[in-house]
Design goal:
Layout lengths: L1 H17 L4 H10 L4 H21 L1 H9 L8 H16 L2 H18 L4 H18 L4 H10 L3 H30 L8 H7 L2 H11 L8 H11 L4 H18 L5 H10 L19 H20 L3 H11 L4 H16 L2 H12 L6 H9 L2 H4 L7 H10 L10 H24 L1
Helix pairs in contact: 1-15, 2-15, 3-8, 3-13, 3-14, 3-15, 4-11, 5-6, 5-7, 5-9, 6-7, 6-21, 7-9, 8-18, 8-19, 9-19, 9-22, 12-13, 15-18, 17-18, 17-19, 17-22, 18-19
Length: 424
Amino acid sequence: MLIALAIGFVMLMTYGKIRRFSWRALWKMALSGMTAVRNIAIVMLLVGALTALWRACGTVAFIVNAASGALTPELFLPAVFVLCAAVSVLTGTSIGTAATMGVICMGVGAAIGVDEAICGGAILAGAYFGDRCSPVSTSAMLVAEITGTNLHENIRGMIKSGWKAALAALAIYGILGYVTGTVPSDVNPSDASLAVGADNITKLLQQHYDLGIVTLLPAVAILVLAALRFNVKMTMAVSIAMSFAICIWQQQMTAAETVKTAFLGFDAPAEISMMNGGGVFGMVKMIVVVAISLTYAGLFKGMGILDKMNRFASRIANRLPPCGFASLTAVASSALSCNQTLAIVLTNEISGNVIPDKKERAMAIENTAVVIAPLVPWTVASLIPLGTIGAPTASILFACYLYLLPISNIVSEMRSRKKFGAVI
């Protein structure tokens, strides 16, 4: 994706030169789009250190160990959605959720005969639940930065606008689990659960970690400080410091090993390789992706590439509610850009005139671009999580929450319009 974005950047610059813009003007346009990258980069580096140390100190292992017991055959699909949503809220990463809880859910699902596509859909939906509304989610921070809104206020708005879709998705997974039948007739449920995944994974985690309750404290700190509306950077710094101390005192790591882990990522033993990842350096590529994506916005705007699209948007804006317009824009931008970051940036740029209110636009983006990108089969947001858990592309059809969210908000806005029109 980085190579593709770089090639696109070169092509845009070349196109600008053909249109007789000076190199100085083109670079000025590109840099103007990157005004938000500094703050985002700092936060992303902190997220890299945080996720690595959470893996090393046992926070992620504790959550996975405690949650995997809920993967019972009777309520398997709803449990998968809830557990993946919970892990994604705590970690703020869809890919990290897929690589940990998602792998376990997929393994247990295969053992008890759950359809791979349905199980993959529940994992994908849960993974992007937190990617949308976690206080440490990079996509949520990006939306807040480019719209000039407050992250904590956005999160409250996301909870308010997303709970109906979440409950509806939970109900659908419950019905799917009941209708399709979770356990084949020739499989003993208890044996199936032990055969793969949950029990075996928890035993391995307990062998490699000292999973005392103290390992959960870094996650608790994130939730409590976020609820108290502490600065995001300060919140993550506190959690990082706690994780650092737990690595040394609870997991018997040296200070040098802990520092190395924070920068290079956690290198787990082969048996629990799902815990690999994180690290400050591991976020550099993502920061570059965000930076290049933001230059597109500056170049599009400076060269007037989006002018025709904006005029077309203005013509159809009155016919659609804000979320409906943002949904169409998000589908097109996700399909063309193939990544969630650029889809968010383009949706914001195109929706600027149509949805001038910053808070309303931020909500529209969170309810569309963030969750629609994983529904486009060829985007990175879809390919990597599904590839990580070994789920088929058809899983997209069962990622209920991801399409119920924009649909429910469109319906809500249309009802509000009718009520407002009736009053007038």
